[in-house]
Amino acid sequence: MKTEFRYVVKTEDSGKALKTILKEQFAFSSRLMTKLRRNESIKINGWTASGWMPVKAGDIIEIAMPEERSEFPPEEMPIDVVYEDEHILVVNKAPGIVVHPTKGNPCHTLLNGITYKMLKEAEKGGPEPYKLRLVNRLDMNTSGLVVIAKNPYVQADLVKQMKSTMVKRYVALLEGMLIPAEGTCDQPLGKPDENEVERWVVPVDQGGQESVTYFKVLERFFKPHEMTYGSEAAGGPIEQKIIDGYTLAELKLDTGRTHQIRIHMAYMGHPVVGDHLYCHGDPFEYRRVYGDPRPPLTGEKGPRMETNPEILSDIIERQALHAASLEFVHPVTGEMIKLKAELPNDMKRAIDLIKDN
């Protein structure tokens, strides 16, 4: 898929180096500019640019982004497109779908499905296939909006916005009646144990990274229910605790750390319903008190990620967390883009179960 940028040099730009113009007008990164120059992708008045030469008023600068394409195995699956143009694709990811292929999981991912969609559209005369460049990622069991850039410039711009100005809102169903109605959780997050997948609140001087989550209660549900702590398999004590109800909340992120919402809500005593890692709060303290019911590590497969079999919700089979909306500035047109994805059916059913009983 070919993407081009064009700029006519103004009088006030005369004499500036070409490299300066590209940074000022397109905010290209140094890495991308080096790649464009190496590929002879920059032309001035129809001629390949010779180094970072100075420009003069009236010069026409044209940049053709390198044509690249992903080689993921195509796989037919439903793809819920929320927004698409020649630069950006945004989809509503279903729960239970891994975002991108890995060595251990090369198929059945979102990018396999998007590859199939892209190739089929090209066969029917649509745009040429392009390289799939992820701007954000979601956990397998988190649903919602995933952004894919279609060229490196757009990816770099959106990733920068993702870390600063992009507005990211999630909706979660939480354990317990969250009080107050709104507020902020500002706790640094890190990995207490590099051999485990879980994160937790870690002081900055011990490697924690600044993490800020804003929360707002959408609805509370008074429905007392029981939660079991510990299991015979783990060899620890077994306790049953009564939770007073549930809370449907909106969460807005200032930062985007791994498992940020899940950890912050658990830290506040209101974990996301069905969250197998953080449903009982600090997983490291929980294992110290109640033992570790997960299967042991085998071989050299890296961090242990098996689901804790004792943590189950009777209203939903995964963590009830959904990336519901995004607001960002389109890197090419400058337009403000506002996107929403409605709650998936399993979260709707969970809410209906709470209301009906």
- How far the N terminus sits from the C terminus, by CA atoms, comes to 53 Å
Looking at how many chains there are and whether they match, the oligomeric state comes to: single chain
Overall spatial form: elongated
Q: How many domains, in number, for the residues? A: 3
Number of helices: 7
Sheet-strand content, in percent, reads 25-35%
Q: Rg to the nearest angstrom?
A: 24 Å
Mean pLDDT: 90
Largest sheet: 10 strands, mixed
Q: What is the strand tally?
A: 16
- Low-pLDDT stretches: none
Order of helices and strands: EHHEEEEEHEEHEEEEEEHHEEH
Class from helix and strand fractions: alpha+beta
Q: Helical residue percent?
A: 10-25%
Describe this structure as you would to a colleague:
This protein is of the alpha+beta class. The protein has three domains: 4-64, RNA-binding S4 domain (Structural Genomics Hypothetical 15.5 Kd Protein In mrcA-pckA Intergenic Region, Chain A); 68-164, Pseudouridine synthase (2-Layer Sandwich), CATH 3.30.2350.10; 165-295 and 308-319, no CATH class. Helix content is 20%, strand content 28%. The chain contains seven helices and 16 strands. Strands 5, 6, 7, 8, 9, 10, 13, 14, 15 and 16 form a ten-stranded mixed sheet that branches. The longest helix has 14 residues, at 110-123.
